[in-house]
TrEMBL record:
The keyword Oxidoreductase applies. InterPro entries: Epimerase_deHydtase (IPR001509), NAD(P)-bd_dom_sf (IPR036291), NAD(P)_dehydrat-like (IPR050425). It comes from Chaetomium fimeti. The keyword Mitochondrion does not apply. This is NAD-dependent epimerase/dehydratase domain-containing protein. One of its GO terms (molecular function) is oxidoreductase activity, acting on the CH-OH group of donors, NAD or NADP as acceptor. It comes from the Eukaryota. Residues 3-263 form the NAD-dependent epimerase/dehydratase domain. It holds the Pfam family Epimerase. Keywords: Oxidoreductase. PANTHER family: NAD DEPENDENT EPIMERASE/DEHYDRATASE, STEROL-4-ALPHA-CARBOXYLATE 3-DEHYDROGENASE, DECARBOXYLATING.
Length: 338
C-alpha cells in the first residue's frame, strides 16, 4: 500500500513514518522545503530508503495546496494528516495557528475528494485537546467528550491551540458527513506525547513542544526547582501513538471513530525522579533531590478510559519510565553527536 503522510518533519510523523515502513508501506511525506525532505530521506536506513520520498507543500492556506501532492501514480491508498502548528506562543493566533490547522485538514480532504479516488481512509492526528473540556472535567474522559471552546476564547493564546485542534477535528467530521465519498475517516486524539526525538531533527532548540520538559531537565533548566506540571498530567509514548495511526488506517472497525490515546499519568516531579534514578551522571543538572517528594500531581485528577484504543487498535501502552529513559537517551545521543 501507498501512504501520504503530511508534516514529515514532525516528532509524531517521524515515528509514524518508521512504523509505516516497518509495516511494509511506501510513503510520501509532505514537507515545506527540499532541504527538510532530504534530511528525512537521509535519516532512513538505506535498506528502506527506496520506500520513502517527499513532496513539497508550501502554504496550506492556499486553495488547492494539496492538489498536486495527492495525485500520484500508483495512487495513494491512505492519507495520514499530522501537520499542524503545536506551540504555545502565537504572534497572530488566527494566521499562525487556527488557519493552518483548519485549512490544513479541510484542504487535504477537499483535494482527496476531488483528485484521489483510490484513497480508502484518512487518519487525522487530532489531540486530547479536542476531548478535554476544562474547567468542567467529568470524572472519566473518553471519546464521547468534546472540548467546548468559543471563537472568542480561541483568540486568547492560552486557548488557541486547543481551539485549533477542536475546530480542525470538527471540520474533518463535518466534511465527511456532507460529502458522499468512498473514503472513511479516523482520528487519533493522543495526549501529551513523550518519546525519542526524530533522527532528522536539526537542533534541540526546534524540539517539539511536548518533549521540552524532558529536554529542560536534562539540560539543567530545572536545577533551581521543578517547573509546575499543570495543566497536563497524562502522557503517552510516541511509538504507541505511531502504531495507533497505522492500525487506525487499516483496521476495518476503526472507520468513523475517534481514539483517545493515553498511556498513563505523570508529573514533572516523577520525570525528575526517573531521570535521577536512571541517569546518575545527570545529577548536577537536576532539581534538588528532596523536591521529588513534593509531587504536584493533584489528588482529585480526572481519570481516562482508553479501552477503545486497546480493543480496536490493540494498543499495549508503554510505561512512563521506559518512555522517559528512551527520550533522555535520544537527547544525550543527539548532544554527543554534536
Ligand atoms: P512538531 O512540532 O514536531 O510537528 C509539527 C509538524 O507540523 C511539522 O512537520 C511542521 O512542519 C508542521 N507544520 C506546523 N505548522 C505548519 C504550517 N503552518 N504549514 C505546514 N506545516 C506545518 O509537533 P508534533 O509532532 O508533536 O505534532 C504533530 C501533530 O500531533 C500535530 O497535529 C499536533 O497537534 C498533534 N498532537 C501532538 C501532541 C504532542 O504532545 N506532541 C499531542 C496531541 C496531538 P515544519 O517542520 O516545516 O514546521
Amino acid at each position: 500500500g501507498k501512504v501520504l503522510l503530511t508534516g514529515g518533519t514532525g516528532f509524531i510523523a517521524s515515528h509514524v513514518l518508521d512504523c509505516l515502513l516497518d509495516h511494509g508501506f511506501d510513503v510520501v511525506v509532505t514537507v515545506r522545503s527540499h532541504e527538510k525532505g532530504q534530511r528525512i530521506v537521509n535519516s532512513i536506513d538505506e535498506a528502506l530508503r527506496q520506500h520513502v520520498s517527499f513532496a513539497i507543500v508550501g502554504d496550506f492556506v492556499k486553495e488547492g495546496a494539496f492538489d498536486e501532492a495527492v495525485m500520484t501514480d500508483p495512487p495513494f491508498d491512505y492519507v495520514v494528516h499530522t501537520a499542524s502548528p503545536y506551540q504555545m506562543h502565537w504572534e497572530d493566533p488566527q494566521r499562525d495557528c487556527l488557519d493552518p490547522a483548519i485549512k490544513g485538514i479541510s484542504g487535504i480532504l477537499t483535494s482527496i475528494y476531488r483528485h484521489a479516488p483510490a484513497v480508502k481512509r484518512v487518519v487525522f492526528t487530532s489531540s486530547s485537546a479536542a476531548i478535554l473540556n476544562p474547567p468542567n472535567h467529568p470524572k472519566v474522559y473518553d471519546e464521547s467528550s468534546w472540548c467546548r471552546v468559543t471563537q472568542e476564547e480561541a483568540m486568547d493564546p492560552v486557548h488557541t491551540y486547543r481551539a485549533s485542534k477542536t475546530y480542525a477535528e470538527q471540520c474533518a467530521w463535518d466534511f465527511h458527513k456532507s460529502h458522499p465519498h468512498d473514503f472513511s475517516i479516523a482520528t487519533i486524539n493522543n495526549t501529551y506525547t513523550f518519546g525519542p526525538i526524530p533522527r532528522s531533527l536539526d537542533s534541540l532548540d526546534r524540539l517539539n513542544t511536548s518533549n521540552h520538559r524532558i529536554r529542560d531537565l536534562v539540560q539543567g533548566g530545572m536545577r533551581g526547582g521543578v517547573a509546575p506540571t499543570a495543566p497536563v498530567f497524562t502522557f503517552v509514548d510516541v511509538r504507541d501513538v505511531a502504531l495507533a495511526h497505522v492500525r487506525a488506517m487499516t483496521a476495518p472497525e476503526a472507520a468513523g471513530k475517534r481514539f483517545y490515546v493515553v498511556g498513563g499519568f505523570f508529573s514533572n516531579h516523577r520525570l525528575a525522579g526517573i531521570v535521577r534514578r536512571r541517569f546518575p551522571q545527570l545529577e548536577g543538572q537536576l532539581p534538588p533531590a528532596e523536591e521529588d517528594a513534593k509531587d504536584d500531581f493533584p489528588a482529585d485528577h480526572w481519570a481516562f478510559d482508553n479501552s477503545r484504543s486497546k480493543e480496536v487498535l490493540g494498543l499495549q501502552y508503554t510505561e512512563l519510565e521506559k518512555s522517559v529513559v528512551d527520550t533522555v537517551e535520544s537527547i544525550l545521543a543527539f548532544e554527543a553527536a554534536g
